[in-house]
Amino acid sequence: MDMQIRYGAGPGEIDHMTTDRLRAEFMVEGLFAPGELRMAYTHLDRMIVGGAVPEDAPCEIAGGGEVGTPGFFDAREAGIANLGGAGWAEIDGTRHALAGRDCLYVGRGTGTLRLGSDDPAAPARFYLNSVPAGADHPSRAIPRAEAKMVEFGDCDRGNFRQLRMYIHPEVGPSCLLLMGITDVPQGQVWNTQPPHLHERRMEAYGYFDLAPEDRVFHFMGRPDNTRHLVVQDGDIVLSPAWSIHMGAGTGPYCFVWGMTGENQAYEDVTPVPVSSLR
Ligand SMILES: O=C(O)C(=O)C[C@H](O)C(=O)CO
Ligand SMILES: [Zn+2]
């Protein structure tokens, strides 16, 4: 397993960051590589983001060398979204089928997790968010049809989008992890518009389903001191609790959002008026 580290920066530090430095601190690029499992350990509430693209052989997560416990999931839970072709996850020998856009909740205490593709020529593309957990909840697959769907925004303002909440108290229990997928359809531009802050939770955005020529301009920073990151398909943006997070795409796109922190209250946010942004 390949594990990078992101230490995290405070709001005052972004004033002095070059584009490269900003990207190195707040983005994880290149997580999805054929046949590989890659991860980044962040110091943002200790969330680990990961990507696995199994081909002929499954990818396995079991040992906890990088997290300081005998097993990876001894003190952690995880959500895994399949962003690619049909695949499967085996949790301590029990297999769950995971079609594209299905998710998996992996509970604390899991021993061995194996991730595989049904067809190596059209591999699954697994995206993981793992966070510290203080309770055991049963692992389970969450098919797309079982997610809670909500719609936000307005086509006339270019910010209509559909959110599916997979790991959410109204769908099934987890300790502190929340995870969902937002679709920004053809002709729409903005996500998370108007933006918000949630000082009690960090968030990671995993952008996917962008055409190779398209980019999302992701905005971050304090409301009165914003910066932007230009992201492509498969890029991850780390959003500390002090930062806004919103984006505008040059074509259709989707993203997985994952959060952890003090609570699982999706509505525990402070809206930020667009007119206050600088
Ligand atoms: O488009 C949106 O709005 C989102 O997807 C918002 C994220 O879910 C989020 O920021 C949750 O706090
Ligand atoms: Zn948010």
Short structural description:
By secondary structure, the chain is mainly beta.
List the helices and strands and how they pair.
Layout: E1 2-6, H1 19-26, E2 27-28, E3 37-42, E4 48-52, E5 59-61, E6 76-82, E7 87-91, E8 94-98, E9 103-106, E10 113-117, E11 126-132, E12 140-142, E13 148-152, E14 161-167, E15 178-184, E16 190-191, E17 196-197, E18 201-208, E19 216-222, E20 225-231, E21 236-239, E22 246-249, E23 253-261, E24 270-271
Parallel strand pairs: 1-3
Antiparallel strand pairs: 2-21, 3-4, 4-11, 5-10, 6-9, 6-11, 7-8, 7-10, 9-12, 13-14, 14-15, 15-23, 16-22, 17-24, 18-21, 18-23, 19-20, 19-22
The structure holds the ligand O=C(O)C(=O)C[C@H](O)C(=O)CO and zinc ion.
How would you sum up this structure, described in words?
The protein is mostly beta strands. It has a single domain (2-276), classed as Jelly Rolls (Sandwich). 3% of the residues lie in helices and 44% in strands. It is built from 1 helix and 24 strands. The protein has one helix at residues 19-26, and strands at 2-6, 27-28, 37-42, 48-52, 59-61, 76-82, 87-91, 94-98, 103-106, 113-117, 126-132, 140-142, 148-152, 161-167, 178-184, 190-191, 196-197, 201-208, 216-222, 225-231, 236-239, 246-249, 253-261, 270-271. It has a 7-stranded mixed beta sheet, covered by helices on one side. The longest helix has 8 residues, at 19-26. The structure holds the ligand O=C(O)C(=O)C[C@H](O)C(=O)CO and zinc ion (ZN). Residues 196, 198, 203, 245 line the site of zinc ion.
